[in-house]
Specification:
Oligomer: single chain
Structural class: alpha+beta
Order of helices and strands: HEEHEEEHHHHEHHEEEEEEH
Strand order of the largest sheet: 4-3-12-11-10-9-8-7
CATH superfamily: DD-peptidase/beta-lactamase superfamily
CATH topology: Beta-lactamase
Strand content: 5-15%
Helix content: 25-40%
Distance between the termini: 44 Å
Length: 398
């Protein structure tokens, strides 16, 4: 064969390789072609009436599949993009936990020092600077709050309700001895945020931009709505398809106000899998079980009822992340739930495998069991415990 012929053959082989993307590896060792995965996801989202969905799949500790489905708004029918701005809801908590561990590494705080000890006066004596979330006047007659530590805030064992308006009188209080039992609480993480802001003299947004968003190249992420997001953002949708009004006046809260894109949050999850931003011992602590969960559900009345139903999963909470024990090693999960926006992410660090699901549809959670199985063969996420009621019971993933 001539030299030209050899060059032509080599070029043809290279082009053939480029035209055939490698298959994605799932937890059970099965593999799926990206085009087949796209077809299956579209079939699931159409069946579940999911208005918009972004999916990232991770192999080898990096994203190897990124795709957006559906629309930003059913009113405009503009297609959703992987770079479209989303309300992140409680995905906020996982990102904030990394910031807190950075501050621990810097010696700015200890996970086990009562947070009140970092302030020169009681937290309830500080004049509020926001509409409500830094107002701690209700704690004036509460002595239990003085025991709350950063570890308790990140592991949801403060004794606070999820939000103060969940209390019958809508007043903030510590309902049980801090550290004694898991109880999902956005108030706990916001309390930690407010103490840090008083201690460091810097707002949450500035800290996040400097220590997390900037280093990871998360250029379209913020804990507060930014005018630059106007060009491309998703609107939430109720289950019946109603387009919900976009909330753009949130003040930065560590537990709940993250604005981000699937592309940016994928960068964050890659950093978690690759153990960037923190020292190895900090990652180990962040993803170490801090409190065992034996409740029938994560939220609502079932959160106060214990069961042995999930003992095989050893559900627990680390620092900002939920944890499972599986035959494929430990798994770390974090969900986000807000009106019109439903998100879920789960990582299997020992396998380097994971998935991110971000949706602007209240119907998305009904599709999560099917989506988790088809993307990475995840049969371990306790969908009943999460109250993810499937739109139908899927057959085994093929």
């Amino acid at each position: 064969m001539s030299s030209f012929g050899k060059i032509f053959l080599l070029a043809a082989l290279l082009l053939a390789g480029c035209a055939t993307p490698r298959r994605l590896t799932r937890l059970d060792g099965t593999r799926i072609h990206p085009e087949e995965l796209t077809r299956r996801i579209r079939q699931i989202t159409d069946s579940a009436r999911v208005h918009g969905l972004a999916v990232a799949v991770f192999n080898g500790n990096r994203a190897v599949y990124r795709q957006a489905f559906g629309v930003k708004s059913t009113a405009t029918r503009e297609p959703l993009r992987f770079e479209t701005e989303f309300y992140g809801a409680s995905l906020s908590k996982a990102v904030f936990a990394v910031l807190v561990l950075q501050l621990v590494e810097e010696g700015q705080l200890s996970l086990d020092e009562p947070l009140q000890n970092y302030l020169p006066k009681p937290i309830y004596e500080y004049a509020p600077k926001t509409r409500w979330h830094d107002n701690y006047a209700d704690l004036r007659t509460d002595s239990l709050y003085r025991r709350i530590t950063a570890r308790m805030c990140l592991s949801h064992t403060t004794g606070f309700a999820n939000w103060r308006w969940d209390e019958p009188d809508e007043k903030l209080r510590v309902g049980r001895r801090p550290g004694s039992r898991y109880g999902y609480s956005g108030e706990g993480l916001v309390y930690l945020q407010v103490v840090l802001e008083h201690k460091l003299g810097r707002p949450l947004e500035a800290l996040m931009q400097e220590k997390v968003f900037g280093p990871l190249g998360m250029t379209t992420s913020s804990y507060q709505w930014q005018p630059r997001f106007e060009a491309d953002y998703a609107l939430g949708h109720a289950a019946d398809g109603r387009v919900l009004e976009k909330d753009k006046d949130n003040e930065p809260r560590s537990a709940s106000t993250l604005e981000t894109t699937p592309a940016d949050y994928t960068r964050f999850l890659e950093a978690v899998l690759q153990r960037r931003l923190l020292r190895p011992e900090s990652w180990q602590e962040l993803l170490r079980p801090q409190v065992r969960l034996r409740s029938r559900g994560q939220f609502g009345p079932f959160a106060r009822q214990d069961t042995s139903l999930y003992d095989h999963l050893h559900i627990s909470y680390g620092l900002g992340w939920g944890l499972l024990r599986t035959p494929h090693g430990p798994a770390a999960f974090k969900e986000g739930h807000g009106d019109g926006f439903q998100h879920y992410s789960i990582l299997f660090p020992e396998q380097g495998i994971g998935v991110l699901l971000m949706s602007n549809s209240d119907n998305a959670e009904s599709a999560y069991q099917s989506l988790l199985r088809v993307t990475i063969a995840d049969r371990f996420t306790p969908v009943d415990w999460q109250n993810y009621r499937p739109y139908y019971r899927p057959a085994a993933t093929r």
